[in-house]
Amino acid sequence: MATSITSMNPKDREKFLEELEFPFCDEVNKYEKMAKIGQGTFGEVFKARHKKTKKIVALKKVLMENEKEGFPITALREIRILQLLKHENVVNLIEICRTKVTQLNKFKSTFYLVFDFCEHDLAGLLSNANVKFSLGEIKKVMQQLLNGLYFIHSNKILHRDMKAANVLITKSGVLKLADFGLARAFSLNKNNQPNRYTNRVVTLWYRPPELLLGERNYGPPVDMWGAGCIMAEMWTRSPIMQGNTEQHQLTLICQLCGSIVPEIWPDVEKLELYNKMELPKGQKRKVKERLKPYVKDPYACDLLDKLLTLDPSKRVDADAALNHDFFWTDPMPCELSKMLGQHGQSMFEFLAPPRRAGRPQPHPALPQPKPHPSADSSYQDRVF
Ligand SMILES: Nc1ncnc2c1ncn2[C@@H]1O[C@H](COP(=O)(O)OP(=O)(O)O)[C@@H](O)[C@H]1O
Ligand SMILES: [Mg+2]
Fold first, then answer.
1. Which of 2, 323, 336, 374 has the fewest Cβ atoms nearer than 10 Å?
2. From the CA of 39, which ligand is nearest?
3. Residues of the chain with CATH 3.30.200.20
């Protein structure tokens, strides 16, 4: 009969733990790390190579620092969702790996999510002025992004962290939605009971007005707002609304999309923070007018206008966006592989060079950001 682990003497226990086998969770040392490519809020990401097969992967470390014991619930949620979502336009999770336990790591494994490697992220590409997207190529990016969103929303998953750094692109030009660290399943309101999800989600600059106003019964439109912000960025090359605080973000939204009032957005006054936040009055909607100098194409301006709709119930969904004339008029969406082939180097937000003197001057056509305390070394404050 097997002795219980608690009744073993310390030496035997260490040996037992070190030799313990995890049949569905290989040791991460079957990969060799090549370079660090990402540092998010939730951990480090490395480019790595499988020692035997030479396959290139991305290793995302599971942060355990704040865990008293056990495997973090947030990482479990991310893994469950990634296991469900298998699609050409969603990043592919290959497996979960672990480090061997030793006395050195106090018998605690570090875990890694292992993904198919993608050569670029969209924030890295947009921060490089040598990377030029034609209109047909922008259509291809947006079509794939919306295809990914259509798929995840059809599977009742919200991404909740849409932004350019979470959109990966392979060297052959296939776009993959990534970073499901904040994603969750959603349901349509059961027996008329509204959902009560947390609204502290989505990076501030991509956060839709309903979340800023305290809505907790939200759905897929939160991701469509982010898709609109990313689409505009394809031309402006940096985030279009860079607020410093939630109040400032709402002000920037009103300056671009017009005042938030019940005539435009019925029932908005019922949202928890509607009376607590200062909402600029008398603002005209200027989405098309302000973006036209960059975007030029009228179909693109029209789709942007529909994505950046204040009232989430009127905001275009992924299906309708994919049917928009933007994708079905000349120039048609065109493969990215040829353009990307001209760039030999990987481009990631994390690796983007720090801003230099002589960067492009701010353009008066869009609401301007105030200096952002933590954004001095990435593409984010290279304001057009
Ligand atoms: N499969 C991948 N291939 C290439 N780069 C990746 C991959 N997954 C993540 N990255 C890079 O690492 C960064 C951080 O990963 P992400 O999953 O977004 O974690 P975080 O929660 O830390 O933001 C991404 O912005 C991207 O640059
Ligand atoms: Mg991320």
1. 2
2. 1
3. 21-116
pLDDT in tens, 298-313: 999 999 999 999 999 9
Q: Where in the chain is the domain with CATH 1.10.510.10?
A: 120-351
**pLDDT at residue 375, rounded to an integer:** 36
Q: Counting ligands in written order, which one lies closest to the CA of residue 43?
A: 1
Sole residue written with tokens 């920037």: 252
Task: Give, in degrees to the nearest 5, the angle at Cα 13 between 9 and 14.
Answer: 125
Q: Which CATH class is domain 120-351?
A: mainly alpha
CA of 284 to the centre of ligand 2 (A): 34
Residue in the block written with tokens 């009232």: 311
pLDDT of the residue at 369: 47
3-state secondary structure of 64: coil
Percent of the chain with pLDDT over 90: 74
Whether the bond into 331 is cis, omega within 30 of 0: yes
210: pLDDT strictly greater than 60: yes
Atom of ligand 1 nearest to the CA of 181: 21
Q: Based on the number of CB atoms within 10 Å of its own CB, is 58 exposed (0-12), middle (13-18) or buried (19 or more)?
A: buried
Contact yes or no for 90/151 (Cβ under 8 A): yes
Among protein residues, the one whose CA lies closest to atom 4 of ligand 1: 118
Q: Is the confidence at residue 354, as pLDDT, over 80? A: no
Q: Does domain 21-116 have CATH number 3.40.50.2300?
A: no
Q: Which residues line ligand 1 (CB under 6 A)?
A: 37-38, 40-43, 45, 58, 60, 91, 115, 117-118, 121, 165-166, 168, 178-179, 181, 348-350
> Which among 205, 208, 177 is positioned nearest to 89, based on CA atoms?
177
